[in-house]
Each structure stands twice: as structure tokens, then as C-alpha cells.
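Known limitations

C-alpha cells in this collection are predictions and should be treated as such. Users comparing against experimental data should check residue numbering before alignment. To illustrate the layout, the record for Cell volume regulation protein A homolog is reproduced below. The input appears on top and the generated C-alpha cells appear beneath it.
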Amino acid sequence: MIESMNVAILIVAGLVSLSIFSSLLSTRIGAPLLLVFLTVGLLAGEDGLGHLRFDDVRAAYLIGSVALAVILFDSGFHTGIKAFRSAAFPALTLASLGVLITTSIVAVPVHYVLGMGWIESALLGSIVSSTDAAAVFFLLRVGGLNLRDRVRSTLEVESGSNDPMAIFLTLSLVGLLAGHHGEAGAVAGFSILSEFFTQFGVGALAGMAGGGLIVFAVNRMGFERGLQPLAAISLAMVVFAATGVMQGSGFLAVYIAGLIAGNAHIAAPETMRRFQEGLTWLAQIVMFLTLGLLATPSQFPPYILGALSVAVVLMFIARPFAAWLCLLPFGFKRNDTSFIAWVGLRGSVSVLLSIVPMVAGLNHGRDYFIVTFLVVLVSLTLQGWTIAPVARFLGQVVPRRIGPVERMELEIPGARHELVAYRVVADSLVARGQRLPRWAEPSLVLRDGRSFGAFAVGALRPGDTAYLFARPERVPHLDRMFASAAPAAEADHRFFGDFGLAPRIQMKELAVSYGLTIPPEVQNQTAAEWMIRQLGHTPGVGDRVALGEVELIVRSLDWDDTIAEIGLAVEPTSVDRPRLPLLFQSPTEILNMLRRFLRRRDPPKAVPPSVE
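Generated C-alpha cells:
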């Protein structure tokens, strides 16, 4: 008994350790980490080197559901409310309507290539219809891609919020196939529609209540520092399970709870984030190892061609069409839509949902799992491996305008200020004599191994370590002041323009300086006001607007998200030039194409000769 227990612990701990150490290889060869974890599970499985037999689908579904709930809570916790607001409408449209469109399109090749009935085909389409929150968050954040704000926010909010729709569709179609919805036709449709509103309504309300409960418990109950993150994650699991008991969407509830808790003034936020980061890594590793162990590669060959056809339609037709149609009303540029369409990574959620038909005892339930597993492998390999080069190709990577910052954060329980410490480097603005804002006077300075008060030390010098109190939203402004002046000048010039402008400069001054024709009604507007009106959404670093023969670019934002600096490119750059000329046209481009087509259809009328 004890010996078998030790062997089990050895196997589990060894696989987790192997996955962690394999991450070092992943960074060297550029492979997606999630693909590495899945491969470790495959190698340890029945057909791999480990010859471990694991076929308990119920245990796999339980492990995957708990792990996914942990990941979604952390995803919501790390999503800023500003990012959520700026991307809420396009992301939620993509997370709801986009899932339905993807399901409908993918059902076609499943029906004709794999020979499934239409309901079975729709079930497989719903299983692979959602992007994977874990895959998107890890590849964007761990990969270190500094993407345009609106594109990054849309991808993160969509991936965190589209799982409930895919889960609802999958469970409803499984129930329909298993006969759980009673009579077919209108009665079944009404039952599914009623279940839809129940799932999302109860899930949203439970998530909001649960998020408030987590904030109250962490802030008011007086837990020890080490117990605070445990209290938060345990309550998140209570919210997840209780919502499911009330027939709501537990996954939606736990994501909303994380969103509320992460954007509230919660005690020890850095301790919470560090704990959740480690726990989310563990959940991700365990989930992918479990799903890898459940797969049997020797069963794959008969399904490879069919799965490849589904993957091709999914990546190159269904996801792009859904992304274009859903984002069409929101003014995304063509390169932005192209990138969002490509980052439609399928991952653990799809494989987890493919277990549901087996749990429900459907005929050929294993077929859903195998096809989905192969589709996920293709998606993680092709899309996951190419995210960085595609982002650069489509002009989505924003060059960092500040160099490295040596900073550490210290938590102050119950306070709304952070104590941050900066090491002064020689080429920073502070070292070159720029004064700190009044709200950020140093409280302590370490110099040559000795500590000094702010007034006794005088001007800061290279090598000093300065401790300052600041509100969290103002810390990025301090980062710019203490940063090394080391960003690549060429990338900065190409992306951010030739000259820097003050955001308060009036448009009529630009007209005089550069010989531009500007309508009278905007001449008294500031450049920042004009840009915001032209963009039609919250500005982000890297956003650009053409102004005659020049281009105005958002170089940086202030701590309150107002435009702090504008760049001017004398000649419009090619950053936003459409790289896929025949795809993802905007409404304006579609209207112009229609007008040109109509002009060609209607030849100009002949003008009768004048009579003299």
C-alpha cells in the first residue's frame, strides 16, 4: 500500500518536474509551452515511453474542470478594468456570435468529410469553437509580446469570456443527442433557449456576488498573509461549484469573480498575483499532462485526414470569417483583424469538452476526443509557433520606448499607495537632472551602503536606490523617469514618427507648420482631442491617424490614460498598410468598393451637343 502510494507520488511529481524543466527547452527552440506539456503527457502515456495507462474520462473531466476554473479566475484577476472596458463590446461579440458562426461553418466539413449527422457535426463544431484562455494568455504574456493595447485587450477578454458559450452549446447538443431535452423540435429549442438565459444570467450574478465576497473576506477577515491567497482561490472554487449547482455557468462566474477581485482595492495584491501565477502554471501543467495521458496515439491514423480538414477550415475559413464579421462594426483596421483572426488558438478547453460525449455515453464518443485532440495539436503547432512572426508581419508589435527598469514593489496592507524602489541608472531622466513630481518625493535613499532622508541626500545619482510612495496607476510614469535610455532608436523612429509633439498643440498650428488643409471646425481642437475623435475608441500606444500627407501617432499615455505625447511622421509609414489585401475590409472600404462597382456598371450618360 505505502509502496504503491510512493510510486504514484513519484510518477506525478516526476511528470510535473519534467514539464517544468522542459520549459527551458521550449524557450530555446521557440515551441509553445502548452504544446510541450501536452507532448510530455503523450510520451508518458500508454503508447509512449512511460507506458502509463490512464482511461478514466470522468477523473480527467474533473481535473480539467477544476484546473480551467483556476485559470479563468486568474485570467479575470489579471484583466484590468480599463482593458475590459475598451474591448468589451468587440470581445463579447466575438465570444458569443463568433462561437456560433464558427460552430456553423466547422459543422460542414465534419458532416461531409467525417460522415457525421448534422447535430453530431454541430457538436464537434461547438467543441472546437472557442479559443483557449490559457493558451492565449500564456503565449501573449509569457511570450513577452508588447502588442497594441486594443488588440491585446480584445484577445484576452474574448479568450476569457468565450468558454461559457462553447460549454453551453456543447452541453446542450450532448443533451439533445442523449434525449435529455424531451421532445424534438420547438420544445427542445425552447428548452435550450431557457437553459441559455439561466446559465448566463445565474453565472453573471453569481460571479459579481462572488467577486464581492472574495474582496470582503480578504480585506476584512484579518487572515494571515500566507492564508489570504488561499482564501481567495478557495472562495473562487466555491463560487464555481455553487453556480453549477444553481444551474448557472460556473466558468463565467469564476471569470467575473476574478475580474471584480483583481480590479478592487484588495489586500496584498502582489502576494495574491504571485501565488496565483504559480498555481495557474501548476493547473495548466496538470491539465495538459492529464489530457496527454488520456490520448492514445495508436488510434490517431484513421482520423488524421479528417482532423486536418477540420483544422484547415477552422483556422483559415471559420475563425477568420467570424472575426471579420464580428469586428466589422467596431472600426478595427485590417491588420488588427487579421492578427485577431490568427490568434484563435485551440487548447485545453476544446479537449476538455471533447470528453463530455464520452462521459454522457454517446455512441462514438471517443471519435470526438481523437479528432479534437488532433485539431488542438495542429493549432498549437502552427498558430502557437507563429504568433510572434505574424505579429511583427502585421505591425502589431509596439517597440518599447523605455529601456529596462530596476524596480521592486513592497506591499503595505490596507493602503492605496505602493512603496516602490528604483535603482538609478546613469542614462535615466532622473540621473540627468529631471525633477520628480511632487507626489513622488523619495522617502529614503540608499547610497554607498548608507541610508539618507530625502532632504539630506540632495539630487539622485547613478547607483542610488530610491524608495518612493505612489499610487499604483502612477507607477508607469515613474518607470519612464527611472528607465535606461536604451530602446532601439531605429524601431522607435520607424514606428513612432520623426518628431514629438505636445498633445495640447492646436490643429491650426499644425496646419501652419506643415502646410496642411484642416477644416475650420477642428482648427481650435488640440491634436489629442482630434486624434481621439478620429480613432473612435480609447487611445492606445501605437495608434495612428493619417492627416493629409503626414501621420499622427500616439507615442505614450499618461498615468490617467490621457495622451502624453504624439509622434508625427512626415511620410505615412507602412505599419498599417494592409498585408492581406483581399481580406478583412472595413465598412468604409466595402462602401467604396461598392461605389466603384456601381460606377463601372452605369456608364456615364452622353452629353448632348450644345446648340449655338
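For this record: The chain has a mean pLDDT of 83. DSSP finds 23 helices and nine strands in the chain. Please report discrepancies through the issue tracker.
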